[in-house]
Amino acid sequence: MKGVKKTNLPQKICATCGKPFSWRKKWEKVWAEVKYCSERCRRGQ
User: Half-sphere exposure of 32 toward its Cβ, with a 13 Å CA cutoff?
Assistant: First the structure.
């Protein structure tokens, strides 16, 4: 994802809260498996 503007990053919808979230560098290798926007949503709030 080098050289990509922030507005052009891929997005997903959080499985818990339903809000959209963008790709992050720390998810680079596991982006296909990411379902939640945050640790709080992953735990079920």
Answer: 1
